[in-house]
Amino acid sequence: MEQYVVYGGTPLVGEVEIGGAKNAALAILAASVMTDETVLIENMPDVRDTNILLQAMESIGVRVNRIDSHTVEVNASSIHELVIEDDYIKKIRASYYLLGALLGKYHKAEVALPGGCNIGSRPIDQHIKGFKALGADVRIEHGLIITEAAHLRGSHIYMDVVSVGATINVMMAAVMAEGVTIIENPAKEPHVVDLANFLNSMGANIRGAGTDVIRIRGVSRLHRTEYTIIPDQIEAGTFMFAAAATKGDVTVRNVIPKHLESISAKLNEIGCDVVEAEDAVRVVSSRPLNHTHVKTLPYPGFPTDMQPQITVALGLSCGTSIVTESIYESRFKYVDELTRMGASIKVEGNTAIIDGVARYTGAGITAPDLRAGAALVIAALAAEGMSTVDDIHFIERGYERFPEKLRGLGAQIEKVENERDIRKFRFRVV
Ligand code: UD1
Prior knowledge:
Blueprint: E1 3-8, E2 13-17, H1 22-31, E3 39-42, H2 48-59, E4 63-68, E5 71-75, E6 83-84, H3 86-91, H4 97-106, E7 108-112, H5 125-133, E8 137-141, E9 144-148, E10 156-158, H6 164-174, E11 180-184, H7 190-201, E12 205-207, E13 213-217, E14 225-228, H8 233-245, E15 249-253, H9 261-269, E16 273-276, E17 280-284, E18 293-295, H10 307-314, E19 320-324, H11 335-340, E20 344-348, E21 351-355, E22 364-366, H12 370-382, E23 385-390, H13 393-396, H14 402-407, E24 412-416, H15 419-429
Parallel strand pairs: 2-15, 3-14, 6-7, 10-11, 18-19, 22-23
Antiparallel strand pairs: 1-23, 1-24, 3-5, 4-5, 7-9, 8-9, 11-13, 12-13, 15-17, 16-17, 19-21, 20-21
Bound molecules: uridine-diphosphate-N-acetylglucosamine (UD1).
Residues 23, 26, 94, 122-127, 161, 163-166, 187, 303-305, 327-328 line the site of uridine-diphosphate-N-acetylglucosamine.
């Protein structure tokens, strides 16, 4: 079984290059099937989630040409079916973006219903509401969401909750609908804006992405484009909190500092120095960390995808911190693992009350999901002694060459396959 083995206690120091945003890539890949012309996408992260979505696309006839590990050409002129099987949806929830993309282009799509996942229940009522408002019929049969429309017509849609997924899906379905669609209360995440920019580069007419109202004027067709995906805000934030927790000095490169503002603000509050350059941010953690309170919120609030990482850092701060999770109810499952490393955290409902401790100690831990997995690796890097991290396939869903990038900052971490590898690692580091 593949694991990470980590020998902690070394401050992370140096520079790390951030890749393309996974969540933007997933939306953009799905949207790339909306034209029959060839689309070139650059700065594509080479992670499990994007690779599985590419496979799902190939399964319905999309031609995928990998130019190199971060550049892909997509041609959807030979799509031969509009059904996305359960196998893909099970592996990656975001294949449901193909619903909006295929509905928008072919007026029909059938995608397996995404099931639950280990950060809490994830309803899709707002997606369905949006498709229906555009004139589509939506029904659920045999575990599939089946949506079809004789005609898609622009509409005025008010989102009851701020949802990244629903905003993305409805935006794609509306791009070629007749007339104007207005989405009120949309998500404003950088990847929503990136998708709108991508679609506009294909000839769509979308205004207001990133604000409280998105206005889409339908166009009859989309055309070829070449597009570069934005940097990954969450990957960058993960390295920034790794610097904080390990008392390090890390510069994240190839980032958009504006996208990192809520993260930088919290790092400042807990006593780190954060220095912004044009496309880089440096985090220096040279003083004892202060406690703080944080609540996850839709962008530009503090991201739920950074909640485990800040909790790990606050677990090592002076005093009591409160972290409130307002997006997903079950996103504190990793706390039990962190407790085994010596953290003092009590979870009550959607709130974690954290009494800072002086140190964590290495342990055998298991990644419960993608972001919590990365956060536990940060804890292991800060901890005294050796840790093993199981179920790293979750981490590989969204972090490219994670151990390699950490080693570039001086971390002692390795991906291992068996006891012998672990013994070799121990022999080298201890
Ligand atoms: C996306 C991200 C995920 C991130 C999350 C929050 C992708 C592929 N995934 O997930 O990494 O953690 O945003 O930033 O980009 N909701 C409803 N009804 C709906 C849809 C959502 O009630 O129809 C609720 C959800 O239960 C949740 C909240 O809205 O409480 C936000 O969900 P949403 O923004 O849709 O998250 P995802 O798009 O699934």
